[in-house]
Structures are given as structure tokens and as C-alpha cells.
Amino acid sequence: MPLIDIDALHKSYGETEVLKGIDLHVEAGEVIAIIGKSGSGKSTLLRCINGLETINSGAISVGGEQLVEDELHLRKLRLKVGMIFQQFNLFPHKTAGQNVMLAQQVVKKRRKAEAETKAREVMDRVGLGDKFDSYPDQLSGGQQQRVAIARALAMEPMALLCDEVTSALDPELVGEVLQVVRALAADGMTLLMVTHEMAFARDVCSRVVFMHQGRVHEAGPPSEIFANPKTPELRAFIGMAAA
Ligand SMILES: Nc1ncnc2c1ncn2[C@@H]1O[C@H](COP(=O)(O)OP(=O)(O)OP(=O)(O)O)[C@@H](O)[C@H]1O
Hints:
Layout: E1 4-13, E2 16-26, E3 31-36, H1 42-49, E4 57-62, E5 65-66, H2 71-80, E6 81-84, H3 96-106, H4 112-125, H5 141-154, E7 159-163, H6 171-186, E8 190-194, H7 198-204, E9 207-212, E10 215-220, H8 222-227, H9 232-242
Parallel strand pairs: 3-8, 3-9, 6-7, 7-8
Antiparallel strand pairs: 1-2, 1-4, 4-5, 9-10
Adenosine-5'-triphosphate binds next to helix 1.
Domain ABC transporter: 4-238
Protein name: Amino acid ABC transporter ATP-binding protein
Membrane topology: Peripheral membrane protein
């Protein structure tokens, strides 16, 4: 059974249907890039998987458990998938380490010592072992985003959803964050990432999903999607992205 199973997902905001029947099945260990024009529904799809948005119809399950919209269930589901956003959303008055410890203590009810051990382990994993006691404003944007990744990893999610995690960064800081994501992929983490980094999608992802007007318009391995796009919409998008 796929780790993330999405069937006939529909999502509207008011009268506007943003997701028009999405089917997507993600196996454990897959690294999927979601690409498409602004407004095609990419972020909304991730937010639905994480239970941040209610859905109108269809079904989403993670780890074999179906998303149903009662609060307790949604909270459990959010624990199974981590999400990383364009903005890092760190608490400015807490150190990097405390930021990584906090959700563990509040949500997972870990004791302080246990949360700290885990926080040190994941800070090491993102290459920031020496920044445990630094405050966010003492860190670069790339380092802050790596703290946000560490914070998600500390919750031991079954999959990570990444929503344009490099878009807010200065160009010279993009590489270090992608390097961390690349290492997670190599370690077997299941990743679903909305990205504008086409070279990264081509090199690292096992599958590329092209969204257009609320639907999965074309999907396949990067070799096919980039070298042999079948639809005019994908051809136009790739042409635009390369420009
Ligand atoms: N909370 C909301 N209320 C109303 N409309 C929304 C809301 N969030 C998104 N939308 C609309 O839904 C559509 C899809 O938005 P979404 O952010 O999912 O697209 P996207 O493909 O991720 O775009 P981008 O690349 O610009 O982030 C857009 O037309 C957007 O204006």
C-alpha cells in the first residue's frame, strides 16, 4: 500500500475549485517534485495532505490511515507528515536548539533531556551541530531553513512535505538547503516537494508531477518529463522555467 494515497481529491475555496480530482500515490522512499505554474494548486495539495485545509471530497490516507476531519485525527495525521515552508517560522527569542525542542516537548510530550538529545542529533544531521545555542537572527537564511528542517525531522515524520523551501533565500544560500534535502532523499526519506528548482527536480527526484489548473496534467520520471514532455502545457512550462 502506498505511504500517501490520494484519490479523487477535490478542494474549493468558496465557488472556486482549486483541486479538480487529484489522484496521487506515493510509495515509501519516493522523492517527488511537484511543478506547475503559479495558481495551479501545488501548495493547496500539500496543505490538504497535511490536514491544514479541509477537503470537499475524495480521500487522503497516510501510512494506511485515512484523513478524517475531526481534530484529534488531524493532529495525529500532522504528526505523521512534517511540513517545511518557504518562511522558516522560527521563534526569534528561542535558540535554534530550543526551537527544535519545543514541538517535541509540547506535542510529543518528550521530557526536556530526551528532546535535547533528539534536537542535537537532527541539528548534526543538517550540519548545524555547532549552532545549537545561536538565535535565529545570528543565522543566515539558509541556516534558519536548515533549523526548520531539523525541527520537522525531530518529530520523526513518515514523510516530509516541502513547499518552495528555497524561494525566500538569497541565491547563494539555496545550495546548502538543497544539499540537506538531497541527503535526506539519499537516506530514504519520502519527500513531496513543490519546487521551482528544475535542475534539482531532474537530479534528485524519482518522479515529477506537473500540475495544471488543479489537475495532475502529466507525471513521470524526470528523464521523460524534461526530455520528452507530451502535452503543450508542460512544454510551455518547461520552456518558461528554462528561460
Ligand atoms: N486561502 C485561500 N482562499 C482563497 N483562495 C485561495 C486560498 N489559497 C489559495 N487560493 C487560490 O487557490 C489557487 C491555487 O493556489 P495555490 O497556492 O495552491 O497554487 P500554487 O500552484 O501553489 O501557486 P504558487 O506557485 O504561486 O504558490 C490560486 O488561485 C489561489 O489564489
